[in-house]
Write a structure and sequence with these properties.
The protein has 369 residues and is α/β, with parallel strands linked by helices. It is built from 15 helices and 17 strands. The model has no long low-confidence stretch (mean pLDDT 89).
């Protein structure tokens, strides 16, 4: 590995279909060996056959609240209604409604069309939009929800339980790749732990991968690989959320951009290779010198909790007596077990209460499987 090729010697899987060439070029320029296996079709967002009928249904009555979920969905919808001569009517109808947007891409599409959102969650997660509505009385309100490529029927049902009249507008449906053979190969490579990382830029790609893995009986192996040896690198929180149901830890850049995702791998993969990685209480804990990462996120520890963590990591899962942890604390600590208890408390505050387990009358251990 050299300074201008920080990913030399690493093998990275790419699941993107759209703009895949840009991502592959960025990775290869940094020395990575790239395995490209798109999980979706190159043009996955096929306009739904029932969109015109759904649009006319929206226009039939005033809309009280509109939920926008994706930028590409809104852009596609507005382009389609323009071809049908309905764009001005649709925009006028939505302009009278309270508009909620899932994230910045949908906000951007709204504003380009001359619409303004009233609220959007910082998390970009659709679940937080629902949480925003959950405490409100929706009785008698007409809500239009723009579907984001996957069914939102359960969401519509939840809103109806709150008394709303809900219309779900399906703009497009996500389709799988034309040739599934490379995608099945990606499943094999992950299950066999032959990749260092796999990148994901869309939540449906995660679902597609897991469906394929289930079809060939390798889902458990794929999940285990992601939990231990293969980094699931997601472009943003929406994509990362698709892994939560599988218990897969993910890493993601602060900005949801492809270049930022590649930059994250530049630091993440070399550190993982050089350091110690543990599966602890459902998280991936990585130690590399004085650097600590929890599920790919750097964690700052002061000297005492760091000393305790390093002592526990010598033999993960085994109990370390308090007296040994006391001896590991930096010089100058009070010579009492209270100092150990304080260091453990700070360590739990930083990493989570379940990461370090207390073994009564014996000491402490890392909560490894």
């Amino acid at each position: 590995m050299t300074g201008d090729r920080p990913l030399e010697g690493f093998r990275v899987g790419v699941t993107a279909a759209r703009k895949a060439e840009e991502q592959r070029a960025l990775l290869e320029r940094r020395g990575a060996q790239v395995e490209w296996s798109p999980m979706l079709s190159v043009e996955p967002n096929k306009i739904d056959a029932g969109l015109r009928e759904a649009t006319e249904r929206v226009l039939a009555e005033p809309v009280d609240l509109f939920v926008a979920t994706t930028g590409i969905g809104l852009t596609s919808w507005f382009a389609a209604v323009e071809d049908w001569g309905l764009r001005e009517r649709l925009l006028a109808s939505l302009a009278q409604a309270e508009i909620l947007a899932r994230g910045p891409k949908s906000v951007g599409a709204l504003r380009r069309a001359g619409l303004r959102e009233l609220w959007a969650p910082e998390s970009e997660r659709f679940e937080d939009v629902l949480a925003h509505l959950r405490g409100r009385d929706l009785s008698g309100l007409r809500i239009v929800v723009q579907e984001h490529g996957q069914s939102l029927s359960a969401v519509a049902h939840a809103l109806r339980r709150q008394g709303a009249d809900v219309d779900v507008v399906t703009v497009y449906r996500v389709e799988g790749p034309e040739d599934p053979a490379p995608a099945f190969r990606m499943v094999d490579l992950i299950a066999e732990r032959k990749l260092d990382a796999v990148t994901f830029t869309a939540a449906p790609a995660v679902a597609a991968l897991m469906d394929l893995a289930g079809a060939v009986g390798l889902r458990d192996e794929v999940v285990a690989a992601f939990q231990a040896d293969v980094v699931a690198a997601c472009v943003g929180p929406v994509t990362a959320a698709a892994f939560e149901m599988w218990g897969v830890p993910t890493v993601q850049p602060e900005r949801s951009r492809t270049a930022a995702l590649v930059k994250l791998l530049e630091t993440e993969l070399p550190v993982r290779r050089a350091g110690q990685a543990f599966d602890v209480a459902g998280h991936v804990l990585l130690l590399h010198g004085d650097q600590v990462l929890l599920d790919g996120v750097p964690v700052h520890l002061s000297p005492s909790p760091m000393a305790v963590l390093q002592a526990l990591a010598v033999n993960p899962g085994h109990v370390v007596p308090r007296r040994e942890l006391l001896a590991a604390l930096p010089t100058g600590q009070a010579a009492s077990e209270h100092a150990v208890e304080m260091a453990v408390a700070r360590l739990r505050a930083a990493l989570g209460t379940r990461v370090v387990q207390t073994v009564v009358k014996r000491g402490y251990r890392l909560a490894t499987p």
